[in-house]
Amino acid sequence: MRKRVFWSIVWADPMSASPPDNLLQPFQIESMAAQGRLVRLGDAVQSVLGAHDYPDDVARVLGEAQAIAGVIAGTLKYEGVMTFQIKGDGPVNILVVDVTSDGAMRGYAQFKGDKLAATATDKGSAKGPQQDVPRLFGSGYLALTVDQGADTQRYQGIVPLEGATLTDCAHFYFRQSVQLDAVLKVAVDRVADAAGGQTWRAGALILQKLEQRGTQQQSGDDNDPDSDDAWRRAVALLGSCTSAELLDPALHANDLLYHLFNEDGVRVFDPSPLAMRCRCSRDRVENVLRSFPRTDIADMKIGDDVIVTCEFCNQSYVFDPAAIEEL
User: Fold this and answer.
1) Is the pLDDT of residue 295 over 60?
2) Contact 202, 22 (CB under 8 A)
3) Among the four given CATH numbers 3.10.250.10, 3.90.1280.10, 3.40.50.720, 3.30.565.10, the one describing domain 282-326
4) 257 with 27: CB under 8 angstroms?
5) What is the model's pTM?
């Protein structure tokens, strides 16, 4: 007998509106075995990847990091900025994605074009997304930082890069740094858009095992076999989710969750919006420039102007001689 599925969101008329996009959707399996987060990114990932002329390999791992950062941010309670960062000694030496508590996302990657080209021609190296981490990042570490402002202590968890993909590295982080029993699926790819072209999309689905508090078996074992079976079943159902389903812009997030977990029942909660919003501004750049000596400012000039370009959104701020003198 199937359990009733509860929905807490009023759906829009499918004839009058497209499925909501760029969101973090919390949900819970009605068996109480697991809770989860679903991230769907359209414009939010296209804006980040389109801000720079990234090669496809770099764009793909940056989009994957953005989706992973989104679901991790959804599992945390914080007021401020969460930063997902990878540093390595491979062609991609730095990758950063941050997510504010109100859903503003941004990200960028630094890479060395010559080393990246060498991986494409090196017949001895592993190819394909199944080996993204060793091929693109080499050896390094993954760091997760939560900054809630000047009056709070910053949290940071660091683990070595362990795994073939960023998803593998995230699983390793869950186990080693936060002891979280969780399973994650991520997809990133270009899909057809309404104009007949292609646009980047990303999606991620995470399940977190719920602790069965206040129960103990007659044998003295704290583990409930029924709960463990329900968890394994939830994991198996998540495994049936395809990359095409995660990325399909026409598939409502609620429909995807119902399709996966309807036999056990799934309850959804209010979603949170996600959007690419960079925090750079001309005022912030001016404050930075004011901190430099005049001689350093002179060294920054390109011709007569100082041009400062944001690494995240690629916005350039130009200061002519009059503006520099005013600073």
Assistant:
1) yes
2) no
3) 3.90.1280.10
4) yes
5) 0.87
